[in-house]
Amino acid sequence: MTRKLIAGILLLASQVSFAQSQDMRKLIDSEFQFAAKQYKVLDKNIPAGLTPQSFNAKTNKLVTYDIKWWCSGFYSGSLWYIFEQTKDAEIKKDAEKALKILEPNQTYTGHHDLGFMMFCSFGNAYRLTGKPEYKEIIQNSAQSLATRFRPEIGSIQSWNKNKYFNCPVIIDNMMNLEMLNWASDNGGDARLKEISVKHANTTIANHFRPDFSSYHVVDYDLTTGKVIRKATWQGAANTSAWARGQGWALYGYTMMYRFTKDTKYLEQANGIANFILNHPNLPADKIPYWDFDAPFMPFSNRDASAGALIASALLELGQYVGTHEKNAYKQAAETMINALASSAYRAKLGENGGFLLKHSTGALPLNSEIDVPLVYADYYYLEALARYKKWYL
Q: How far is CA 381 from its chain centroid?
């Protein structure tokens, strides 16, 4: 092959890459502009003091919860992502209003989801504004979350004891470690990061199968510290791979590597990514079914929230790996983003109760939130868009 031919091939490749980048930039900017308009529709329907969760198309009513609900921080967090990209003053005002009602959560210790509630919201707010009062709330919230650490098992207890579980720890809990790590690294107690590391290590030891798929729940005996049983509460079966749970795991260990640079977390994240992306039941658009082992494929419900979450995690994981893996993760995330931005998943302006994405699945075995918009699907979709723009354009 002549040098001239090689040069021509390289030039063509660079031109294709540039065109693709321009297409993605246009798509991402368009999606944020749409999100600003759509979330103004959503804001008008939220009762005072509550946070939006979903939309019931049958009753044409918004589904909302009080601030103790685990998803309460996603709405404000989404608004901050939208404001960051659009500089829309009305969106910022709505974000600040949503933050205000969350403030009492900084002392809440009733479950493990303080990271979702307070870091997705106040974390993004502090990142963009630098207001010291936001930082103080994050630090207080991290201390509240740390009260749920159980030294006997080396983990943060997720839910309180109930008729089903003695001391349950769920894979979702990996996400809440981000707030502990950040608080510790930004003037907080060093013990917070120690707790985070212990929890992450215990989760590697007990939550995962040899193929890097994860159980949803591990139940512990607080007296002996031993595992009582392993289960998958929101998945198809105890032995199945609940899709969003795999996303929590992927995101969680990628984040742990960011904060610690411990290569075992990077290896764990890569293993989980390979499980997801090479799974024979992953559809062509890479938006997973609600469980990788769901019955009745290909007619099972998809989970757009899992797709958005996984896309966001893959984009960060791509920052820490070699060129081959980075390109593979970027391409997979790009496929997911394009799918979610299409009419197959993304709502039209004024529809879907004001939410961006359709076709998420909350907890199918519990007959809860099936084929509906979910606030955290929007949050991780917006995060994925912002990450792509920051790191790949």
A: 9
pLDDT digits (tens, 9 = 90+) for 112-127: 999 999 999 999 999 9
What angle (nearest 5°) sits at the alpha carbon of residue 121, between those of residues 115 and 123? Answer: 75
Dist CA 104 CA 93 (whole Å)? 19
CA angle, corner 119, sides to 382 and 155, nearest 5?
120
Element (H, E) at 230: strand 227-231
Classify 350 in phi/psi space as left (phi over 0), alpha (psi -120 to 50) or beta: left
Q: Give dist(CA 345, CA 361) in Å, integer.
A: 13
- List all residues 6 or more positions away from 183 whose beta carbon is below 8 Å from its beta carbon: 138, 139, 141, 142, 143, 189, 192
Query: Are 240 and 216 within 8 A, CB to CB?
Result: no
295 token code pair: 């019955």
By C-alpha distance, which of 211, 184, 212 is closest to 196? Answer: 184
Return the HEC string of 58-75: CCCEEEEECCCCCCCCHH
Domain annotation for the chain: domains and CATH numbers: 20-392 (1.50.10.10)
Q: What are phi and psi of 155, to 5 degrees?
A: -145, 165
CA distance 290 to 362: 8
Report pTM. 0.95
Give the residue numbers annotated as catalytic, written as ranges: 113, 172
Tally the residues of the chain.
Answer: 393
d(CA 341, CA 351): 15
Work out the burial of residue 392: count CB atoms within 10 Å of its CB; fewer than 13 is exposed, 13-18 middle, 19 or more buried: middle
pLDDT per residue over 155-172, tens digit each? Answer: 999 999 999 999 999 999
Nearest to 291 by CA among 232, 220, 227: 232
The whole-chain average pLDDT of the chain stands at: 95
Q: DSSP state, 47? A: P
Closest CA relative to residue 70, chosen from 28, 33, 119, 136: 119
**Of the candidates 266, 218, 197, 209, which has an alpha carbon nearest to the alpha carbon of residue 240?**
209
Q: What is the DSSP letter of 278?
A: T
242 neighbors 236 (Cβ within 8 angstroms): yes
